[in-house]
Amino acid sequence: PLLGICFGHQIIACAGGGTVARNPRGREIGTIEVQLLENDPLFEGLPKRFLANATHVDTVTQLPPGARLLAISTLDASAAYALGSARCLQFHPEIDGDFMRSLLEVRRPILEAEGFVVDSMIERVSDTPSGAVILRNFVRGLMASR
Q: Which of 92, 95, 109, 126 lies deepest, with the highest CB count within 10 Å?
């Protein structure tokens, strides 16, 4: 089992024959809504729509052959996919609200130059319990395969 997060999600896509490019919909950063398209053990216990923290500029523009699209977000048409025993997430289940707020502060000059209103983004940031569920599900699946 392999869990690819963000750049890992992108590298696995490239290694499997997919493509990655600058997201034509723009940067995705902050607390976002993820919509599940397909059931998968990685998302067991989560609703069809849940919040997650994300930060990325690039995106998987074409999934590798044989990949199953698992989720999308408003700005990402491939927020999660499965490829064999690998599960790949463009968002960050390991990032909590405090870290995301700090990241937005550090990147404030860049984000404001791109037209983002950072103070309102910071207000919308939240802890995302979905992250802990996803990581726990992955570890349970990993242990079950041993």
A: 95
CA distance 26 to 75: 7
CA 86 to chain centre: 14
Nearest-angstrom CA–CA distance, 100 and 55: 9
Q: Is the dihedral of CA 145, 52, 14, 82 positive or negative?
A: positive
DSSP 8-state code for residue 1: -
The pLDDT, as a whole number, for residue 144 is 78
pLDDT tens column, 124-139: 999 999 999 999 999 9
- Token pair 């939240």: residue: 126
Q: What is the pLDDT of residue 36?
A: 98
Q: d(Cα 37, Cα 74) in Å, to the nearest integer? A: 13
Q: Is 98 exposed, middle or buried (0-12, 13-18, 19+ CB in 10 A)?
A: exposed
The catalytic residues are: 6, 92, 94
Could you tell me what percentage of the chain is helix, strand and coil, using 3-state DSSP and rounding each to the nearest 5? 35, 30, 35
Using alpha carbons only, give the angle 52, 77, 105 rounded to the nearest 5 degrees. 40
